[in-house]
Each structure stands twice: as C-alpha cells, then as structure tokens.
Amino acid sequence: MNVEQLRLDLERDEGCVYEIYLDHLGYPTFGIGHLITGSDPESGEAVGTKISEDRVQQVFNSDIDCVIDDCYRAFDDFGSLPEGVQLVVANMMFNLGLPRFNKFKKMIRAINLGDWQSAADQMIDSKWYQQVTARARRLESVMRGIV
Predict the structure, then answer these.
(1) Whole-prediction pTM value?
(2) Beta-sheet pairing, 17-22 with 28-31
(3) What pLDDT digit, counting tens, does each position of 105-128 carry?
(4) Which residue of 18, 38, 103, 140 shows the fewest CB atoms closer than 10 Å?
C-alpha cells in the first residue's frame, strides 16, 4: 500500500490541529485525528493545550502503524487487495477503529469476494456514511472505481 498516499488522505480527511480539542463525539483529540487514551501523556490535559509538531507526527506515525496492523487483522490477504481497496479500508479503519470496522460484515464479505460494487453499496448503507458524508462519498467513489 502507498502509505504516503494514505497519510495525505488522512490529513485531508482528519485535518491537523496542534492543540487538544473535542471531536464531534466530545472525545479529547489532537493532531491528525488522534483520540487521546489513558496511556497518552496528554491524557487529562485541558482542551486548548498546545501540542508540538514533533509530537503530532510521532503519534500519527504510530497510529498509521496500528491501522495497518488492524487491516491485516481484518483481512489476512490485505497486502494482495487492489491498492484502492487497501486505501479505502485503511482510511475507514483509521476513522472507525477495528471493533467498529468489523461491524461492516457485508462490506467485508464483499471485499473478500472481490465484489467492489457491493462493498461500496454496503458503505452507503451505514450510520458512518451519514456521519462523515464527504469522506464517505470519496471513499465509496474510490471503491466503485476498482477494476
């Protein structure tokens, strides 16, 4: 997978904020969509706390590594899927996390069958699609364009 393209896509979709903010669900976040967990040194810090560019990049690199690992957990043959499918899956995985991504059972089944149109149909038929519509439409379009 073209990891540099994934990085660019995620930065466009997530934005990049050098301070702690609350995401659309009210969770403390910073950088390129990094949800703060209890193990982060930023845990418990106030909204508006500044975060360095180095820290944002460090966490983003780690988040990308975790996302790719999760993609291989979801699909044993992830590396042999078409590039576009890999980018769509990784982007969704970053946005949703593995537990929520795994709820897309019909989409996962369609991907395993190589049925990109049905996979795209299943993306539309979700709450996620309504929550991140611009991103979801772009990813659906990529999935539909796979030949």
Answers:
(1) 0.94
(2) antiparallel
(3) 999 999 999 999 999 999 998 999
(4) 38
Assess contact for 117 and 140: CB atoms under 8 A. Answer: no
E strand or H helix at 22: strand 17-22
Q: How many C-beta atoms surround the C-beta of residue 70 within 10 A?
A: 21
Task: Provide the 10 A C-beta neighbour count for residue 91.
Answer: 21
Nearest Cα neighbor of 109 from 118, 99, 97, 100 is 118
The span from the CA of 1 to the CA of 43, in Å, is 32
Q: Tell me which DSSP letter residue 35 carries.
A: E
How many helices (H) and strands (E) the chain has is answered by 8, 3
pLDDT for the residue numbered 25 = 84
> For residues 144 and 147, what is the distance between their CA atoms, to the nearest angstrom?
8
The DSSP letter of residue 32 is T
Cα dist from 78 to 30, 41, 71, 124, whole Å: 28, 32, 7, 22
Determine the Cα–Cα distance for residues 16 and 44; give it in Å rounded to an integer: 20
